[in-house]
Automatic annotation (TrEMBL):
<protein>
    <submittedName>
        <fullName>NAD(P)/FAD-dependent oxidoreductase</fullName>
    </submittedName>
</protein>
<feature type="domain" description="FAD/NAD(P)-binding">
    <location>
        <begin position="5"/>
        <end position="107"/>
    </location>
</feature>
<dbReference type="Pfam" id="PF07992">
    <property type="entry name" value="Pyr_redox_2"/>
</dbReference>
<dbReference type="InterPro" id="IPR036188">
    <property type="entry name" value="FAD/NAD-bd_sf"/>
</dbReference>
<dbReference type="InterPro" id="IPR015904">
    <property type="entry name" value="Sulphide_quinone_reductase"/>
</dbReference>
<dbReference type="InterPro" id="IPR023753">
    <property type="entry name" value="FAD/NAD-binding_dom"/>
</dbReference>
Length: 421
Protein backbone atom coordinates (compact mmCIF):
# COMPACT_ATOMS: atom_id res chain seq x y z
CA UNK A 1 0.00 0.00 0.00
CA UNK A 2 1.28 3.43 -1.01
CA UNK A 3 2.20 5.51 2.05
CA UNK A 4 3.76 8.70 0.60
CA UNK A 5 1.98 11.37 -1.39
CA UNK A 6 3.03 14.62 -3.00
CA UNK A 7 -0.19 16.20 -1.63
CA UNK A 8 -2.14 14.65 1.24
CA UNK A 9 -5.66 15.96 1.96
CA UNK A 10 -7.40 15.16 5.25
CA UNK A 11 -11.18 15.28 4.86
CA UNK A 12 -13.53 14.35 2.03
CA UNK A 13 -16.29 16.86 2.73
CA UNK A 14 -17.01 20.02 0.75
CA UNK A 15 -13.48 21.41 1.16
CA UNK A 16 -11.50 18.22 0.55
CA UNK A 17 -13.38 17.10 -2.58
CA UNK A 18 -13.48 20.62 -4.08
CA UNK A 19 -9.73 21.06 -3.58
CA UNK A 20 -8.84 17.61 -4.92
CA UNK A 21 -10.99 18.24 -8.02
CA UNK A 22 -9.54 21.69 -8.69
CA UNK A 23 -5.95 20.49 -8.22
CA UNK A 24 -6.48 17.57 -10.62
CA UNK A 25 -8.10 19.84 -13.24
CA UNK A 26 -5.10 22.19 -13.04
CA UNK A 27 -2.50 19.40 -13.15
CA UNK A 28 -3.55 15.79 -13.75
CA UNK A 29 -0.04 14.54 -12.89
CA UNK A 30 -0.29 15.58 -9.22
CA UNK A 31 0.03 12.66 -6.80
CA UNK A 32 -2.82 13.18 -4.31
CA UNK A 33 -4.02 11.07 -1.38
CA UNK A 34 -7.29 11.82 0.44
CA UNK A 35 -8.11 10.53 3.93
CA UNK A 36 -11.85 10.23 4.60
CA UNK A 37 -13.61 7.50 6.62
CA UNK A 38 -17.21 8.03 5.48
CA UNK A 39 -18.73 6.33 2.45
CA UNK A 40 -21.53 8.92 2.36
CA UNK A 41 -21.37 12.58 1.34
CA UNK A 42 -24.08 15.03 2.44
CA UNK A 43 -25.26 18.36 1.11
CA UNK A 44 -25.79 19.86 4.55
CA UNK A 45 -27.08 23.33 3.51
CA UNK A 46 -30.39 21.64 2.57
CA UNK A 47 -30.82 20.20 6.09
CA UNK A 48 -32.58 23.43 7.13
CA UNK A 49 -35.20 22.73 4.46
CA UNK A 50 -35.41 19.06 5.52
CA UNK A 51 -36.09 20.26 9.08
CA UNK A 52 -39.02 22.33 7.78
CA UNK A 53 -40.49 19.51 5.69
CA UNK A 54 -39.75 21.07 2.31
CA UNK A 55 -36.81 18.91 1.12
CA UNK A 56 -36.26 15.14 1.18
CA UNK A 57 -33.35 14.00 3.35
CA UNK A 58 -32.40 11.22 0.93
CA UNK A 59 -31.79 13.88 -1.74
CA UNK A 60 -29.01 15.37 0.42
CA UNK A 61 -27.07 12.08 0.47
CA UNK A 62 -24.76 10.63 -2.21
CA UNK A 63 -22.00 8.03 -2.33
CA UNK A 64 -18.59 9.46 -1.43
CA UNK A 65 -16.96 7.20 -4.03
CA UNK A 66 -18.85 8.97 -6.84
CA UNK A 67 -17.13 12.26 -5.97
CA UNK A 68 -13.52 11.23 -5.32
CA UNK A 69 -11.80 12.76 -8.38
CA UNK A 70 -10.27 10.36 -10.89
CA UNK A 71 -6.62 9.68 -10.11
CA UNK A 72 -6.90 10.61 -6.40
CA UNK A 73 -6.10 7.79 -3.94
CA UNK A 74 -8.89 7.43 -1.39
CA UNK A 75 -7.65 6.26 2.02
CA UNK A 76 -10.92 5.25 3.69
CA UNK A 77 -9.80 5.74 7.27
CA UNK A 78 -9.83 8.25 10.11
CA UNK A 79 -6.90 10.60 10.67
CA UNK A 80 -5.80 10.39 14.31
CA UNK A 81 -2.64 12.52 14.51
CA UNK A 82 -0.69 15.11 12.54
CA UNK A 83 3.07 15.43 13.05
CA UNK A 84 4.07 18.40 10.88
CA UNK A 85 7.73 18.22 11.98
CA UNK A 86 7.92 14.75 10.42
CA UNK A 87 5.54 15.49 7.50
CA UNK A 88 3.44 12.62 8.77
CA UNK A 89 -0.24 11.80 9.42
CA UNK A 90 -1.39 8.88 11.58
CA UNK A 91 -4.61 6.98 10.89
CA UNK A 92 -6.80 4.62 12.91
CA UNK A 93 -6.30 1.44 10.87
CA UNK A 94 -3.89 2.08 8.01
CA UNK A 95 -0.76 3.26 9.80
CA UNK A 96 1.16 6.41 8.94
CA UNK A 97 1.28 8.41 5.73
CA UNK A 98 3.91 10.96 4.75
CA UNK A 99 3.61 13.92 2.43
CA UNK A 100 5.41 16.75 0.68
CA UNK A 101 2.42 19.07 1.14
CA UNK A 102 -0.50 18.72 3.54
CA UNK A 103 -4.05 20.13 3.35
CA UNK A 104 -5.98 19.32 6.56
CA UNK A 105 -9.66 20.19 5.93
CA UNK A 106 -11.60 17.72 8.13
CA UNK A 107 -14.38 20.18 9.00
CA UNK A 108 -15.57 20.49 12.57
CA UNK A 109 -17.10 18.08 15.05
CA UNK A 110 -20.28 18.22 17.08
CA UNK A 111 -19.49 18.44 20.81
CA UNK A 112 -22.85 18.31 22.64
CA UNK A 113 -21.02 17.32 25.83
CA UNK A 114 -19.87 20.96 26.17
CA UNK A 115 -23.42 21.98 27.09
CA UNK A 116 -24.43 20.10 30.28
CA UNK A 117 -27.60 18.07 29.82
CA UNK A 118 -27.56 18.13 26.01
CA UNK A 119 -25.92 14.78 25.18
CA UNK A 120 -28.68 12.77 26.88
CA UNK A 121 -31.56 14.53 25.11
CA UNK A 122 -30.32 15.68 21.69
CA UNK A 123 -32.65 14.43 18.94
CA UNK A 124 -35.01 12.89 21.48
CA UNK A 125 -38.51 14.04 22.40
CA UNK A 126 -38.96 17.79 21.91
CA UNK A 127 -35.21 18.61 21.62
CA UNK A 128 -33.97 18.78 18.06
CA UNK A 129 -31.23 20.05 15.74
CA UNK A 130 -30.99 20.40 11.98
CA UNK A 131 -27.24 19.98 12.49
CA UNK A 132 -27.55 16.37 13.66
CA UNK A 133 -30.97 15.01 12.68
CA UNK A 134 -33.07 17.29 10.47
CA UNK A 135 -35.79 14.63 10.04
CA UNK A 136 -36.36 14.60 13.81
CA UNK A 137 -36.61 18.41 13.71
CA UNK A 138 -39.47 18.14 11.20
CA UNK A 139 -41.12 15.53 13.40
CA UNK A 140 -40.92 17.88 16.41
CA UNK A 141 -42.44 20.79 14.43
CA UNK A 142 -45.35 18.65 13.29
CA UNK A 143 -46.12 17.43 16.83
CA UNK A 144 -45.77 20.86 18.47
CA UNK A 145 -49.07 22.11 19.87
CA UNK A 146 -48.05 25.53 21.24
CA UNK A 147 -46.12 27.01 24.19
CA UNK A 148 -42.50 28.15 24.19
CA UNK A 149 -40.59 27.31 21.00
CA UNK A 150 -36.96 28.09 21.91
CA UNK A 151 -34.21 28.43 19.30
CA UNK A 152 -30.62 28.96 20.40
CA UNK A 153 -26.95 28.43 19.63
CA UNK A 154 -23.73 27.89 21.60
CA UNK A 155 -20.81 30.19 22.37
CA UNK A 156 -18.47 28.12 20.16
CA UNK A 157 -18.01 28.79 16.43
CA UNK A 158 -20.55 26.80 14.39
CA UNK A 159 -21.12 25.77 10.78
CA UNK A 160 -23.19 28.45 9.06
CA UNK A 161 -23.90 30.85 11.91
CA UNK A 162 -27.21 31.82 10.29
CA UNK A 163 -28.72 28.30 10.30
CA UNK A 164 -30.26 28.48 13.83
CA UNK A 165 -32.29 31.53 12.82
CA UNK A 166 -33.21 30.09 9.39
CA UNK A 167 -35.01 27.12 10.94
CA UNK A 168 -36.57 29.50 13.49
CA UNK A 169 -38.12 31.64 10.69
CA UNK A 170 -39.40 28.53 8.90
CA UNK A 171 -40.82 27.07 12.12
CA UNK A 172 -42.59 30.35 12.92
CA UNK A 173 -44.09 30.37 9.44
CA UNK A 174 -45.14 26.74 9.84
CA UNK A 175 -46.89 27.50 13.15
CA UNK A 176 -48.87 30.22 11.34
CA UNK A 177 -49.88 27.82 8.56
CA UNK A 178 -50.89 25.26 11.20
CA UNK A 179 -53.02 27.81 13.08
CA UNK A 180 -51.13 27.59 16.40
CA UNK A 181 -49.07 30.79 16.21
CA UNK A 182 -51.37 32.58 18.68
CA UNK A 183 -50.63 29.90 21.29
CA UNK A 184 -46.88 30.07 20.67
CA UNK A 185 -43.96 32.17 21.90
CA UNK A 186 -41.10 32.01 19.40
CA UNK A 187 -37.82 32.84 21.16
CA UNK A 188 -34.51 33.34 19.37
CA UNK A 189 -31.81 33.46 22.08
CA UNK A 190 -28.20 33.95 21.02
CA UNK A 191 -24.89 34.70 22.77
CA UNK A 192 -24.33 37.20 19.94
CA UNK A 193 -24.81 40.94 20.23
CA UNK A 194 -27.05 41.56 17.19
CA UNK A 195 -29.25 39.61 14.79
CA UNK A 196 -26.68 39.82 11.95
CA UNK A 197 -23.27 41.41 11.59
CA UNK A 198 -23.79 43.19 8.25
CA UNK A 199 -25.97 46.33 8.69
CA UNK A 200 -27.84 46.08 5.35
CA UNK A 201 -29.07 42.57 6.14
CA UNK A 202 -29.57 43.22 9.87
CA UNK A 203 -32.06 45.98 8.97
CA UNK A 204 -34.22 43.51 6.99
CA UNK A 205 -34.00 40.79 9.65
CA UNK A 206 -34.83 43.17 12.50
CA UNK A 207 -37.97 44.24 10.63
CA UNK A 208 -38.97 40.58 10.10
CA UNK A 209 -38.51 39.85 13.82
CA UNK A 210 -40.58 42.88 14.76
CA UNK A 211 -43.36 42.30 12.23
CA UNK A 212 -43.72 38.62 13.10
CA UNK A 213 -43.63 39.09 16.87
CA UNK A 214 -40.50 36.98 17.41
CA UNK A 215 -38.84 37.44 20.81
CA UNK A 216 -35.16 38.20 20.23
CA UNK A 217 -32.74 37.91 23.15
CA UNK A 218 -29.09 38.79 22.45
CA UNK A 219 -26.36 38.07 25.03
CA UNK A 220 -28.10 34.81 26.01
CA UNK A 221 -25.46 32.08 26.28
CA UNK A 222 -26.95 28.60 26.91
CA UNK A 223 -25.44 27.15 30.07
CA UNK A 224 -27.32 23.93 30.91
CA UNK A 225 -30.47 21.98 30.14
CA UNK A 226 -32.78 20.18 32.56
CA UNK A 227 -34.67 17.61 30.48
CA UNK A 228 -36.90 16.50 33.37
CA UNK A 229 -38.35 19.99 33.85
CA UNK A 230 -37.91 20.99 30.18
CA UNK A 231 -35.90 24.05 31.19
CA UNK A 232 -32.88 25.69 29.64
CA UNK A 233 -30.68 28.06 31.63
CA UNK A 234 -28.95 30.97 29.91
CA UNK A 235 -26.18 33.19 31.23
CA UNK A 236 -26.62 36.87 30.40
CA UNK A 237 -23.29 37.63 28.74
CA UNK A 238 -23.42 41.34 27.93
CA UNK A 239 -19.90 42.75 28.57
CA UNK A 240 -19.73 44.94 31.64
CA UNK A 241 -23.14 43.88 32.94
CA UNK A 242 -23.17 42.53 36.47
CA UNK A 243 -26.90 41.89 36.64
CA UNK A 244 -29.87 41.16 34.42
CA UNK A 245 -33.45 42.39 34.72
CA UNK A 246 -36.45 40.21 33.97
CA UNK A 247 -39.93 41.73 34.07
CA UNK A 248 -42.52 39.85 36.11
CA UNK A 249 -45.33 38.34 34.09
CA UNK A 250 -43.18 38.19 30.93
CA UNK A 251 -44.74 36.05 28.15
CA UNK A 252 -41.98 33.43 28.27
CA UNK A 253 -42.25 32.95 32.02
CA UNK A 254 -38.51 33.63 32.37
CA UNK A 255 -37.11 33.23 35.85
CA UNK A 256 -34.03 35.02 37.13
CA UNK A 257 -31.60 32.93 39.18
CA UNK A 258 -28.95 35.00 40.91
CA UNK A 259 -27.67 38.05 39.06
CA UNK A 260 -27.01 36.75 35.55
CA UNK A 261 -28.75 33.41 34.99
CA UNK A 262 -32.15 33.10 33.33
CA UNK A 263 -34.25 29.94 33.31
CA UNK A 264 -36.75 29.38 30.49
CA UNK A 265 -39.27 26.56 30.09
CA UNK A 266 -39.40 25.02 26.61
CA UNK A 267 -42.15 23.05 24.91
CA UNK A 268 -39.78 22.52 22.01
CA UNK A 269 -36.06 23.32 21.88
CA UNK A 270 -33.96 23.65 18.74
CA UNK A 271 -30.27 24.33 19.01
CA UNK A 272 -26.96 24.10 17.23
CA UNK A 273 -24.77 21.90 19.44
CA UNK A 274 -21.39 23.28 20.52
CA UNK A 275 -18.78 22.57 17.82
CA UNK A 276 -15.00 22.20 17.83
CA UNK A 277 -12.10 21.30 15.61
CA UNK A 278 -11.39 17.53 15.62
CA UNK A 279 -9.27 16.36 18.55
CA UNK A 280 -6.32 15.37 16.35
CA UNK A 281 -6.24 18.94 15.00
CA UNK A 282 -6.50 20.55 18.43
CA UNK A 283 -3.64 18.39 19.70
CA UNK A 284 -1.35 19.01 16.72
CA UNK A 285 1.21 21.80 16.32
CA UNK A 286 -0.84 23.10 13.42
CA UNK A 287 -3.47 24.54 15.76
CA UNK A 288 -3.27 27.84 17.61
CA UNK A 289 -2.07 26.94 21.11
CA UNK A 290 -3.46 29.85 23.15
CA UNK A 291 -5.90 32.75 22.89
CA UNK A 292 -9.17 33.28 21.02
CA UNK A 293 -8.31 30.96 18.12
CA UNK A 294 -7.12 28.10 20.32
CA UNK A 295 -7.62 24.71 18.67
CA UNK A 296 -8.16 26.00 15.11
CA UNK A 297 -5.57 25.77 12.31
CA UNK A 298 -3.23 28.74 12.19
CA UNK A 299 -3.31 30.01 8.60
CA UNK A 300 -2.68 33.32 6.88
CA UNK A 301 -6.17 34.75 6.35
CA UNK A 302 -5.38 35.79 2.76
CA UNK A 303 -3.08 33.08 1.32
CA UNK A 304 -4.43 30.01 3.24
CA UNK A 305 -0.82 28.98 3.95
CA UNK A 306 0.04 27.86 7.48
CA UNK A 307 1.89 30.54 9.42
CA UNK A 308 4.53 28.20 10.84
CA UNK A 309 4.68 25.20 8.50
CA UNK A 310 5.03 26.50 4.91
CA UNK A 311 4.20 23.14 3.29
CA UNK A 312 0.79 23.08 4.98
CA UNK A 313 -2.35 24.87 3.73
CA UNK A 314 -5.87 24.83 5.11
CA UNK A 315 -9.28 26.43 4.66
CA UNK A 316 -12.94 25.91 5.49
CA UNK A 317 -14.48 25.17 8.87
CA UNK A 318 -11.29 24.05 10.63
CA UNK A 319 -9.16 27.07 9.65
CA UNK A 320 -8.92 30.12 11.91
CA UNK A 321 -10.45 32.67 9.55
CA UNK A 322 -12.56 35.63 10.73
CA UNK A 323 -15.49 34.81 8.46
CA UNK A 324 -18.50 32.48 8.44
CA UNK A 325 -17.90 28.73 8.18
CA UNK A 326 -19.93 28.04 5.03
CA UNK A 327 -19.67 26.18 1.74
CA UNK A 328 -19.84 29.55 -0.02
CA UNK A 329 -16.67 30.62 1.80
CA UNK A 330 -14.93 27.41 0.71
CA UNK A 331 -15.93 28.09 -2.91
CA UNK A 332 -13.97 31.37 -2.82
CA UNK A 333 -11.12 30.07 -0.64
CA UNK A 334 -10.37 26.97 -2.74
CA UNK A 335 -9.05 28.69 -5.93
CA UNK A 336 -6.78 30.86 -3.76
CA UNK A 337 -5.30 27.85 -1.98
CA UNK A 338 -4.93 25.88 -5.23
CA UNK A 339 -3.11 28.65 -7.08
CA UNK A 340 -0.83 29.50 -4.15
CA UNK A 341 0.04 25.85 -3.50
CA UNK A 342 0.73 25.06 -7.17
CA UNK A 343 2.98 28.12 -7.36
CA UNK A 344 4.87 26.88 -4.30
CA UNK A 345 5.27 23.41 -5.83
CA UNK A 346 6.46 24.72 -9.22
CA UNK A 347 8.54 27.79 -8.27
CA UNK A 348 9.27 27.43 -4.57
CA UNK A 349 7.33 30.66 -3.92
CA UNK A 350 3.73 31.03 -2.79
CA UNK A 351 1.43 32.62 -5.38
CA UNK A 352 -0.11 36.08 -5.06
CA UNK A 353 -3.78 35.10 -5.01
CA UNK A 354 -5.59 36.59 -2.01
CA UNK A 355 -8.82 35.65 -0.25
CA UNK A 356 -10.69 38.70 1.07
CA UNK A 357 -13.08 36.89 3.40
CA UNK A 358 -16.08 36.32 1.12
CA UNK A 359 -18.85 34.22 2.58
CA UNK A 360 -22.57 34.07 2.05
CA UNK A 361 -25.49 33.02 4.16
CA UNK A 362 -28.71 32.26 2.28
CA UNK A 363 -31.18 33.18 5.05
CA UNK A 364 -34.53 31.51 4.44
CA UNK A 365 -37.07 33.79 6.12
CA UNK A 366 -40.30 31.85 5.40
CA UNK A 367 -41.54 29.22 2.96
CA UNK A 368 -40.86 30.63 -0.51
CA UNK A 369 -38.71 33.61 0.62
CA UNK A 370 -34.99 34.15 1.19
CA UNK A 371 -32.47 36.91 1.83
CA UNK A 372 -29.04 36.26 0.31
CA UNK A 373 -26.52 37.77 2.73
CA UNK A 374 -23.07 38.11 1.14
CA UNK A 375 -20.14 39.68 2.93
CA UNK A 376 -16.37 39.69 3.39
CA UNK A 377 -13.89 40.40 6.18
CA UNK A 378 -14.94 43.05 8.73
CA UNK A 379 -18.65 42.44 7.94
CA UNK A 380 -18.46 44.46 4.73
CA UNK A 381 -21.27 43.71 2.28
CA UNK A 382 -19.94 41.97 -0.82
CA UNK A 383 -22.60 41.15 -3.40
CA UNK A 384 -22.20 38.96 -6.44
CA UNK A 385 -22.08 41.49 -9.33
CA UNK A 386 -24.35 39.39 -11.58
CA UNK A 387 -27.08 38.61 -9.01
CA UNK A 388 -27.13 42.13 -7.54
CA UNK A 389 -27.68 43.59 -11.01
CA UNK A 390 -31.10 41.95 -11.13
CA UNK A 391 -32.10 41.42 -7.49
CA UNK A 392 -31.88 43.39 -4.23
CA UNK A 393 -30.49 40.55 -2.08
CA UNK A 394 -31.16 42.44 1.15
CA UNK A 395 -34.92 41.95 0.62
CA UNK A 396 -36.93 38.73 0.92
CA UNK A 397 -37.16 37.24 -2.57
CA UNK A 398 -38.94 34.26 -4.13
CA UNK A 399 -36.16 34.02 -6.73
CA UNK A 400 -33.61 33.55 -3.94
CA UNK A 401 -35.76 30.74 -2.46
CA UNK A 402 -35.60 28.99 -5.84
CA UNK A 403 -31.84 29.49 -5.84
CA UNK A 404 -31.60 27.91 -2.36
CA UNK A 405 -33.87 24.96 -3.11
CA UNK A 406 -32.82 24.11 -6.66
CA UNK A 407 -29.92 26.22 -7.94
CA UNK A 408 -27.38 25.82 -5.15
CA UNK A 409 -27.77 22.02 -4.74
CA UNK A 410 -27.33 21.59 -8.52
CA UNK A 411 -24.24 23.80 -8.48
CA UNK A 412 -22.82 21.91 -5.48
CA UNK A 413 -23.08 18.38 -6.89
CA UNK A 414 -22.38 19.14 -10.56
CA UNK A 415 -19.95 22.04 -10.50
CA UNK A 416 -18.33 22.71 -7.12
CA UNK A 417 -17.47 19.09 -6.24
CA UNK A 418 -16.18 18.64 -9.81
CA UNK A 419 -13.77 21.55 -9.38
CA UNK A 420 -15.65 23.74 -11.86
CA UNK A 421 -17.23 26.40 -9.62
Amino acid sequence: MKTHFQILIIGGGTAGITLAAQLKLKDASLDIGLIEPSDKHYYQPAWTLVGAGTYDFKDTERKEADYIPKGVTWIQDKATAIEPDQNCVGTKNSGKFTYDFLIPVPGLFMAPELLPGLTEILDKGVVCSIYTNPEHTWDVLQKFKGGNAVFTQPTTPIKCGGAPQKIMYLAEDYFRKKGIRDQTNVLYATPGTIIFGVPDFAKTLNKIIHDRDIIFKPFYAPEKIDSEKQEITFKYSKPGESNCTIMEGNPLGEELIGALEIKVHYDMLHLAPPQTAPKFVQESKLSIQEGPGKGWIDVDIHTMQHKRFPNVFSLGDVAHLPTAKTGAAIRKQAPVLVENLLSLIKTGTVGHKSYEGYSSCPIVTRYGRMVLAEFKYDNVRDSDPLISKFVDTTKEQYSMWLLKKYGLPFMYWNLMLRGKA
